[in-house]
Structure formats: C-alpha cells, structure tokens
Design a protein that fits this description.
single chain; about 220 residues; alpha/beta; TIM Barrel; 8-stranded parallel beta barrel; about 15% strand; globular; disordered C terminus
Length: about 220
C-alpha cells in the first residue's frame, strides 16, 4: 500500500467546502501515510500552515475556458500562497479544434509561469478522440510539462479510463508522467490505472483505497474524484 500512497494526490475540490471541512480533511489525512493533497486555491495556505503535506492546487478549473493570462495569474497567486504543484486545465477548444499552435503556446505560457514546481495539464480525455489525446500529450512533452492528467472529475463525459491512461502512457513514452483522476474509488480501480500506465492518482476515496478509516463526506463525493 505504501507504493500506492506515495503516488496519490488526496483530493478535496468540491466548491462548497468550508474551512472547517478542509481542516477535518487534513486531520483525517494524517492517518493515510500520503505525501500530498490537492485542494482549491483558497485552501493552499491552510495546507501549508496547518499540515505536513505538499499542496497541489488547480488552475483554470474546471472548464479550462479561460484566457491564458488568467491562468498565469492564478498560478502566480497559488505559488505565492505556497503551492508545490499546479494542475492546470487545458483549453479544450484549442485541442478539439486542432489548433495545435495555440495548444503549444498555452502550454509554453503555463510552463514559463511555473518554472520550479511540478506542472500538470488536465486534458479531459473522455471528451477527446484518441488522436487528439496523443497530439496533446506530445505537445505537453515537447513544452516541458511534468504530467498529463485525464480529468477534472467534473465533465459530463466522464473521468479516467484504462484506455485513455494507456494511450497517454504510450504517447508519453517516459517523457512525462500520467495522472489518472476521476472515478477512482477502490483499490481495484487504482491498480487498474497503475497497470494501464498511471504514475500519479488523483482520488478522494483514499481511505477506502488504502484501507484506512473513512469519514462520511458528501461534499467530496459530490464530484467525480
């Protein structure tokens, strides 16, 4: 279980989460032997001030339909708050329109804004074709992105799939990592994603996956993580 715990981003991204709910989430996480948590930008300082965890946060979330300048500003604010890793939603219009020069330009801008931290781009793979996934992964690798990520957990088309993770992993070819997120709720799900090529997992059902105590949490279960 330690090997799985080491690659988990324990996630709480429900927009209605209160500060006290986030504190309870961090307190419960102390029993899980994990390294990092993924929270909304407003909770990054709380993670850094009140827990031992590395802080992952999201940018352009959940739609990705933001001007790149807005995403860059979000990154700068998140880093100022102490974020250790950034998960930025890609502009799906650019990918689905095959505007590859625009995809490359956005990824370059996101990378330049995150020079010394881990940067992941979220592709929302369930709404993309195989060729679009492959092309986006190749551009992410060429622009120095650290990870490609399957999903926000919010899109109506669904979350992570073994097919998408396998496709991403083959396209990445060791040049960057693959984060599977969205709908991973059991140890079997986690192992299936790892077998498909995932090198990081974004999950809220961490206690269930790792066999730890679970706190009922309707807030977190309301999203696709």
């Amino acid at each position: 279980m330690d090997s799985i715990a080491a690659i988990i981003d324990h996630t709480l991204l429900a927009p209605e989460t209160t500060t006290e709910e986030c504190r309870a989430f961090l307190h419960d996480a102390l029993t899980l032997n994990i390294k990092r948590v993924c929270v909304s930008p407003i909770f990054v300082q709380l993670v850094k001030n009140e827990s031992p965890f590395e802080a992952v946060t999201v940018v352009g979330f959940p739609s990705g339909a933001h001007e790149v300048e807005a995403k860059v500003n979000e990154i700068e604010l998140a880093l100022r708050s102490g974020a250790d890793e950034i998960d930025a939603v890609a502009n799906l219009n650019f990918i689905r329109s095959h505007s590859w020069a625009d995809v490359e330009s956005e990824f370059q801008r996101l990378r330049a804004a995150t020079p010394a931290k881990v940067l992941k781009v979220i592709l929302e793979t369930a709404c993309l074709s195989d060729d679009e996934i492959i092309d986006a992964v190749n551009i992410a690798a060429a622009t120095g992105i650290d990870f490609v990520k399957t999903s926000t957990g919010y899109h109506k088309s669904g979350g992570a799939s073994e097919h998408a993770v396998s496709l991403m992993s083959r396209a990445a070819a060791g040049r960057l990592g693959v984060k599977a997120s969205g709908g991973i709720r059991s140890l079997a799900d986690a192992n299936a994603m790892i077998a498909a090529g995932a090198t990081r997992l974004g999950v809220s059902a961490t206690a269930k996956i790792l066999g730890g105590p679970e706190r009922p949490n309707a807030t977190n279960e309301s999203v696709g993580y």
